[in-house]
Amino acid sequence: MIRHLHLDNDNVPKIVILGPPASGKTTIAMWLCKHLNSNLLSMENLVLRQFSSMAAETRKHYQKTKTLPSRLLIQLIQERLAEEECVKRGWILDGIPETREQALMIQTLGITPRHVVVLSASDTVLIERNLGKRIDPQTGEIYHTTFDWPPETEVQNRLMVPEGISELETAQKLLEYHRNIVRILPSYPKILKVISADQPCMDVFYQALTYVQTNHRSNAPFTPRVLLCGPVGSGKSLQAALLAQKYGLVNVCCGQLLKGAVADKTKLGEIVQPFFEKKMAVPDSIIMKVLGQRLEQQDCVQKGWVLHGFPRDLDQAHILDTLGYNPN
Ligand SMILES: Nc1ncnc2c1ncn2[C@@H]1O[C@H](COP(=O)(O)OP(=O)(O)O)[C@@H](O)[C@H]1O
Question: What Enzyme Commission number(s) does the record list for this chain (predicted)?
Answer without folding.
Answer: 2.7.4.3, 2.7.4.6
